[in-house]
Amino acid sequence: MDAPIVVLTGAGVSAESGIPTFRGKEGYWTVGSREYHPQELATHAAFTRMPWDVWAWYLHRRAVCRRAEPNAAHKALARLPCDLITQNVDGLHRRAGSRPYAIHGDIDHMRCANDCCLDIFAMPEEITDPKAELRCPRCGGMARPHVLWFDESYDEPRFFLETSRRLAAQARTLIVAGTSAQTNLPWQIVTLAVRAGATVIDINIEDNPFGDVATRVIRAPAAEAIPAIVAGHLQPD
Ligand code: OAD
What we know:
Layout: E1 5-9, H1 12-15, H2 38-41, H3 44-49, H4 51-67, H5 72-79, E2 83-86, H6 92-96, E3 101-102, E4 105-112, E5 121-122, H7 130-133, E6 143-147, H8 156-159, H9 161-170, E7 173-177, H10 184-195, E8 199-203, H11 209-213, E9 216-218, H12 222-234
Parallel strand pairs: 1-2, 1-7, 2-3, 7-8, 8-9
Antiparallel strand pairs: 4-5, 4-6
Helix pairs in contact: 5-12, 9-10
The structure holds 2'-O-acetyl adenosine-5-diphosphoribose.
């Protein structure tokens, strides 16, 4: 049986598709808007206070993601037999043909803002009247972006909390790519894999805390390093 390979990706994997990262120089959390710090918009509290401002920001980010195309890293991972866990909400792994566990959600999807059900719905392709079209298809109430906000918690039905922990604890190889190690579940994933004795490969253009615990550190752009690693794994024994 093949050794289980688990891959954990972050914003750096989509950087070469032209999507800003979060904490880089042009990152979403770095470039402040006039009225709000962007990080404040990514909260349930902000959505409760000003839902249409928050929606407008997500619709802008969604448009950026939809204009982008999967790069060589996304395409290579779609060919690798692996369990793919992503923090990215941009949908590029999905569009490249993978079926990732999207632990921070997916910006092209929405769900009921009142939690009438656990369903997650594809958003309408074209949105001309947000207040009319961004509704829960089940109860007709307001919908919200299907993303994890700063004042919310991971769970299994929406964000694959237990699934990712289990995959990490069973991994023989964990490839971590393009993340700055600032969020909670990715830390748990890497820690569980290290404890399980997995080979941990950290791919990033910069040093980051995951590099300190990795077995192998690759300091190169994801769109170069990932296809090379995948080609190695796909070679016949
Ligand atoms: P960050 O913006 O925090 O970090 C991006 C990482 O990618 C950095 O370590 C960069 O050095 C690296 N990087 C940039 N370009 C790269 C490239 N071409 N190849 C390889 N690495 C590159 O983004 P994340 O770590 O993904 O959560 O952020 C994690 C979470 O924090 C996000 O999912 C978001 C944010 O709050 C939510 O919105 C819930």
